[in-house]
Write a structure and sequence with these properties.
Largest sheet: 7 strands, mixed
Distance between the termini: 43 Å
Helix content: 40-55%
Radius of gyration: 22 Å
Strand content: 5-15%
Oligomer: single chain
Number of strands: 14
Strand order of the largest sheet: 2-10-9-6-5-3-4
Order of helices and strands: EHHEHEHEHEHEEEEEHHHEEHEHHEHH
Shape: globular
C-alpha cells in the first residue's frame, strides 16, 4: 500500500540513512575460515598457478552446479574472451543490448561482430522470436544472458541454435546458485560464464569461471588461461594469463560455506520489497519464481510507461539524496554506448523494448548489508518519490538554474 508522502531529503528533509545502502555491497562470510585458508596458502608459499585452493574451489563449485568442468579464471570478462576463442568463433554473435557492456565487448575485442537483439518485456532477457529473425549466414553463436538471477528462455534458444547449427553460450554473471526447471545453471548450452566480482552476491573478491560438460572445450579453456602451457616448458596453444589466484579461491571457498545464508537473507529482503510494494501504482516489481531455486541477487522495479526516462532519473537522484544508492541498470543499453552507437547507428529502431526498459528500470539495494527494516524504509521512500516526481524535477531544475548563475 502507498504511504502518505514524506518530506524527502531532496525537498529539504533529512536523509533517511546515515550510511549508504548499495545495490551490490560485498557479502562477507566466515572471516575466520577465510583467514585460515589464506594462512594455509602463505604457509605453502603457493599463491597462484593452479594452487590447492583453486583446485578445491573448482571441485566444490562443480559439485554444487552438477557440471563436469568448472574452470576458475581471474574475472568473467577474461573468461568470456577465452571461451569465445576456445570455441572457436568467427563472424557474428547475437547478444542482448540490455546487459553489462562486457557481454558485447568480449566478442568484439576478439574480432566478432555483436548483433544486438531485443528482449522480452517481462523477463528482460533475449526474446527468442527476435533471435530467430536475426540469424544470418555469418551468425556463429547466440550469447544469452541470465538476468537478475533468473534464467533466459533456455529451451527456445537451444532449439534455435540446434536448427541453425550455432554455438549457444550463456553469460551467467547474475545466476550462480540458480536452477532452471530443476537443473542448476552451469551446464546449459555449450558453456556458461560466471562472475564472482565483489558486487555479486557470491564473490571471490574478483573472479570468474567457465562451466561446461564438453571436456574438450574445458581443456582448451584451461590451456588458454595459462599461456597455452601443458606442463613445464611445453606450450601447445595460444594463451594468456587468465588464472585465479589462491587469495580469490580462499574467498570463494569461504563464501561457499555462507552461500545458503546469503541466499536466505536476499530472499527475506525480496519478500519484504514484494509485500511493501504490492499495489503501488506506477511500478511493477520484477518477480522471482519462488518455485525455482534462486539467489534473489537483485531487486528490480520497472516504472509504468506513463513515467519518462527523466522521471526515472529524478527518482534515482532523490533516492541518492536519502543515501539509497539505487542504480539504472543497464542504461542506456550497449547499443547507445561507444563504439556501438557509431558502428550501428539506428539499431535502436529494432530494440524498442530494450529502450523502454532501460529508461524505466531501477535496481534497489539488497544483500547482507541491507536489513528487512532498511528495505521497508526504501519502499516508503520510493513510494514518496513516485508521488512527488513533479516537485523533485522542479527542485532539480531550480538547482540547475542556480548552478548556471554562479
Amino acid at each position: 500500500m502507498s504511504r502518505p508522502a514524506r518530506q524527502l531529503a531532496i525537498l529539504g528533509g533529512a536523509p533517511s540513512f546515515a550510511r549508504a545502502l548499495h545495490v551490490g555491497a560485498p557479502n562477507i562470510g566466515d572471516r575466520a575460515l577465510l583467514h585460515s585458508l589464506l594462512d594455509e596458502a602463505l604457509d605453502r608459499r603457493w599463491l597462484t598457478n593452479d594452487g590447492a585452493l583453486v583446485q578445491a574451489f573448482e571441485q566444490r563449485a562443480a559439485e554444487l552446479l552438477g557440471v563436469r568442468n568448472f574452470v576458475a579464471l581471474c574475472n568473467a570478462t577474461v573468461a568470456l574472451e577465452i571461451l569465445v576463442r576456445a570455441c572457436p568463433l568467427e563472424g557474428e554473435v547475437i547478444v542482448p543490448s540490455f546487459t553489462f557492456v562486457a557481454t558485447a565487448h568480449a566478442p568484439l575485442w576478439l574480432g566478432l561482430t555483436p548483433v544486438f537483439c531485443d528482449i522480452d518485456e517481462q523477463t528482460h532477457t533475449l526474446d527468442p522470436a527476435r533471435v530467430e529473425e536475426l540469424v544470418g549466414p555469418r551468425t556463429a553463436a547466440i550469447l544469452g544472458v541470465h538476468l537478475w538471477g533468473r534464467a533466459c528462455e533456455v529451451e527456445a534458444l537451444a532449439a534455435i541454435a540446434e536448427k541453425h547449427k550455432l554455438r549457444l553460450l550463456f553469460d551467467a554473471a547474475h545466476a550462480f546458485g540458480v536452477a532452471h526447471n530443476g537443473t542448476m545453471i552451469g551446464s546449459f548450452g555449450d558453456a556458461e560464464v560466471f562472475s564472482f566480482h565483489a558486487t555479486k552476491f557470491f564473490n571471490t573478491f574478483e573472479g570468474g569461471a567457465v562451466t561446461t560438460d564438453d571436456d574438450g572445450l574445458a581443456e582448451r579453456v584451461r590451456l588458454m588461461r595459462n599461456f597455452g602451457f601443458a606442463g613445464h616448458d611445453n606450450v601447445v596453444s595460444l594463451g594468456i594469463n587468465g588464472k585465479m589466484n589462491e587469495a580469490c579461491a580462499a574467498m570463494g571457498l569461504a563464501s561457499l560455506e555462507s552461500l545458503d545464508e546469503f541466499i536466505a537473507h536476499n530472499r527475506r529482503n525480496y519478500e519484504t520489497y514484494h509485500e511493501e510494494l504490492a499495489g503501488t501504482a506506477g511500478l511493477r516489481l520484477v518477480e522471482h519464481d519462488l518455485e525455482q531455486r534462486g539467489n534473489f541477487q537483485y531487486v528490480v522495479v520497472q516504472l509504468a510507461d506513463a513515467f519518462t526516462r527523466e522521471d526515472r532519473d529524478a527518482i534515482v537522484t532523490a533516492l541518492h539524496a536519502e543515501n539509497v544508492l539505487a542504480r539504472r541498470y543497464f542504461y542506456p543499453g550497449c547499443h547507445r554506448m561507444e563504439p556501438y552507437r557509431t558502428m550501428f547507428p539506428g539499431v535502436g529502431e529494432r530494440l524498442p523494448v530494450t529502450e523502454r526498459v532501460a529508461d524505466r528500470v531501477i535496481v534497489l539495494p539488497t544483500g547482507t548489508a541491507v536489513s528487512a527494516a532498511d528495505a521497508r524504509t526504501v519502499c516508503g521512500l520510493l513510494q514518496a518519490c513516485l508521488q512527488q516526481v513533479p516537485q523533485i524535477r522542479t527542485r532539480q531544475a531550480a538547482g540547475g538554474d542556480r548552478e548556471q548563475g554562479r
